Here is the input.
Amino acid sequence: MIEHSHMAHHAWIFAKDVLGLAMWLVMLAVIFVPLERLFALHPAQIWRKQTGVDLSWYFINSFLPAMVIALPLATLARTLRSVDPGGFYSWAAHWPLWVKVPLVIVVSDIGSYWYHRWSHANPLLWRFHALHHSAEHVDWLVNVRAHPVDLVFNRLAGLVPVYLLGLAISTGPRLDPAVALVTIFGTAWTFFIHANLRWRLGPIEWLISSPAFHHWHHTNDEHRDHNFASIFPFIDKVFGTAWLPNYWPPVYGIDAKVPPHLVAQLIDPLPDQKPAAVADK
Ligand SMILES: [Zn+2]
Ligand SMILES: [Zn+2]
Here is the structure.
């Protein structure tokens, strides 16, 4: 009986989470669908090939990667504080949010820049990242088209340095508030930079990423392997991987074939399935 009500409780929490995610999705669609109609860069249909699959990725990727990284990050935070009691980490814990949030954005963007760049260079990691690049039409929803394994490593690369530097301290079940704020901002912004919008942001384009900046990351011509940062283009500038001309990429996607169905997209990159199936890019 107790067991049963316990399960019912969890089912209720899960249902509320799914409902909340569905409402976020509706809000995003209300913003981006009309904008992409009005200011389309490329002529496109609202319901394109793979929209259904990408919607499934939206729900899966809103849960799974966050669940997987929660425990290692909490363990890291607890370990750091126990090896350094009353020291740097306790001091940093009291820094105000307005100091921490900008630092968290920069540090996590540098961390995920390097993972992202590595995932383009390393054949095994590329198998998991290729799904994101397989989109031949780039629009706001392509933001969530990603393999959960790719997202787990990318987020860990962004957040482990944040914890090491004492910018996040939470050890409980809840996300650190600075990390939570940055995650919300980063997620909203990455929907924007995928959007099929012909807007150019002028001189600001070197300060914060734009659709033009990230669309070039999805190009399938000789300029691929540029623009790895998700928020700050100057990270690519500093490390020599920036490419942002006045025109737009001619073609998106990758040469390799990615399976059209969700389960195959999930399983295909796993090693020992089909050796080197998506290793070329
Ligand atoms: Zn990439
Ligand atoms: Zn992208």
Notes: Residues 2-267 form one domain. The chain has a mean pLDDT of 92. The longest helix spans residues 2-38. The pocket of zinc ion (ligand 1) is lined by residues 116, 120, 129, 132-133, 217 (CB under 6 Å).
